[in-house]
Structures are given as structure tokens and as C-alpha cells.
Amino acid sequence: MGFNNQFGEWGSYVITSGDAVSIAKKACLAGARIIQYRDKTASRKQMLETARRLRDITTDHNVMLIVNDFIDVAMLVSADGIHLGQDDIPISEARNITPEGLIIGISTHSIDQAKEAEAAGADYIGIGPVFATPTKQGNVPIGMDIVREVVSIMHIPVVAIGGINPDNVNQLKGAGVTNVAMVRGFTSDTENVVRKINNMFLGL
């Protein structure tokens, strides 16, 4: 599946938690454009099994699948991309072992990290946590001013993450981010939240 760098083309970016398969099914049926499989507790074997199920679901709905952290899992299921953290292997090294065209995104937490990610060849960055969030304990929220500055200097898509919910998405849309990624925001009322985000970013 091709990757579109054009502003606003992504639609809902759903990061899984809990029952990843159930959330992915609901999100895809509602029109999500990207599913990121993220699991911090499962064994690698369990992750591979779940990722294969997610690949089947996303393929059926023409949705991109991104795997968080684990390049081997992403490659084994023919995912569309991987999402790396600051403590994962560098983008340049990831490029050496992944197929041409694989999307590589990276989490950034400051203006300097955002600049470094773009210079290293990231396809997109995640910037955050924008607001306080239990999934990023220990990371101080960067706030809206940093988000606006990052958006103003980046030439690749900027996806905001961290403490985002349907009630504060408008602030980020106004700041010019390409999209928002949510974990908790999609765990309940998944279909309606996906539709709301799609309507906001895609006019659907």
C-alpha cells in the first residue's frame, strides 16, 4: 500500500491497547486509515500471532498497519511500517535491514529530536506527550507551543500523541498537525470516535 505524505490524508490513527484485534476490527469498519499495533506486555510469539491477525484485518479494509518497536514482527507480517522510540535502533540502521518503502516513524519529545528525526530520514514523527497521560509516565507534557513550533519547521507529517481525547483534538487540528494518534481515546466507543476524527481531518 502506498504512503501518502499529503496533509490530512491519513484519517484516524488508532494505537491498539487491550484487545487489539477487537479494536482493530471496529476501527477498520468505521473507516480508520492507520492501525498501530502496540503491546508492551505480550511475548514476542504472542505479538506475532496478533500481528498476523491484524494484518489480515487491515488488508481486508485497505488500512495501513504499523508495528510499534519490533522490526522483526513488522517484517514477518509484511506490515506497512514500524514506529520506533528514542531508545530503539537508529533510523539509519533500521533502513539497512528493512525492505525499501517500509514506513518508519519515530517518537519525538522535543524540537531537537524532531529535527534529528527528519534529518535521519523518518517518514513521519510522533510528537508528545502533548498533555499528561498515564501511558507516558515520566515524560513531561510538551504543551501546545512546542507542537506549533515543530509543525512550523517540519517537512514531513507530524502526528501529535499523548493525553489526546475527542475533547481536545480541535486544539491540535488548529495547530496544523497532520493527525493525532490516540490509545485510550479509541478504547471505548471506537467506531464513533474514528468517525469523528475522520470528519475533522478528512471531512468525511
How would you characterize the overall build of this protein?
The protein is α/β, with parallel strands linked by helices. The chain has a single domain, classed as TIM Barrel (Alpha-Beta Barrel), CATH 3.20.20. Helices cover 40% and strands 17% of the residues. The chain has helices at residues 20-30, 44-60, 71-76, 91-97, 111-120, 143-153, 169-175, 190-202; strands at 13-15, 34-37, 64-68, 81-84, 103-108, 124-127, 158-161, 179-182. Strands 1-2-3-4-5-6-7-8 form an eight-stranded parallel barrel, surrounded by seven helices. It is globular and about 40 Å long.
Question: What would the keywords be for this entry?
Answer:
about 200 residues; alpha/beta; TIM Barrel; 8-stranded parallel β-barrel; 8 strands; about 40% helix; about 15% strand
